[in-house]
């Protein structure tokens, strides 16, 4: 058996500098599928190996089965293996390029100071060997631990459950978060990327909105609503190209000591490229997100744009108003959906029944009405009729704008008593 010690920060190409041109290197996944095949290039001009001083990465060894002809050249392979080798060359070429691009995206981040790469041993030590007492959150695809870093900093470590998609999600999240800088978006401290562990390290906050919702006072709920909206405005308007989060929900909104929100979990976020038509076609068979928060056009057709996040944000507004989760098992809720339940009450003029009793009527009535209006607009079935997040912020922060919107909506309702569809565009906000 041939064992090659390959530091993950180095690309496959740079690792080939240790092999003569008479040898091959094969990189395989855990199932034995060949991902990369290259010929050694030790006679080539040496590449910059500045990362080689990181001896801690030496434990990430590539164990290759004896059954594979690791040291065989194409000349020494039997004739009947020629067809198979050519097939490997053809099928591996795309994966080779993809993996190298992924490493090239992540590897320079530490040198730029935007994030740090942690070893498995460092993560294990910081979480007290992944003690259950250090768990501060979990989901179907990850567990979040409190971590005491070596430099004394306290952080949160999200350890992904390794799947076929976890590597792509990790690289996506690290790549996106490393380029973001906003007070209402979590700060990336680093990551761990190896065969046996995939984790992201954030600044530690005081739990999620979902965990703390019922104990929040009205002023704090308003601050959360505005803060998350500003985070989305930053992603949609300040980032070029725009970034669509695709999983805005109460458990992905983290809170500080003073209940200042920070949007987290960018594992399913995507960079939004025009044209919309081609994007919708490309994404329609890979819908990600959380049931109860996903926009109808996204669920049915895979259509993605900034209005996808606006809809999910509208569900969060309902949670802030009602104190209830997006999906309920209570028989009071039709189909268990908070959205359907809220729409039913609003259509019958029973908006007061939406308000969380835990607030004990201690809230600003006008602010409550503004948030209800914002939620209704965000949750429109037609994405083209939902306002931008910029208009939602204006609605929440500017009472005069809310009065204008309310007046326009009342005029629309009166005008459309007999026929709504022919003039629907005139009721846009």
TrEMBL record:
GO molecular function: ATP binding; protein kinase activity
SMART domains: S_TKc (SM00220)
SUPFAM superfamilies attached to this UniProt entry: Protein kinase-like (PK-like)
Pfam families assigned to the protein according to its UniProt record, in alphabetical order: Pkinase
Domain Protein kinase, residue spans: 130-403
Matches recorded under InterPro entries: Kinase-like_dom_sf (IPR011009), Prot_kinase_dom (IPR000719), RBK1/2/STUNTED (IPR046958), Ser/Thr_kinase_AS (IPR008271)
UniProt name for this protein: Protein kinase domain-containing protein
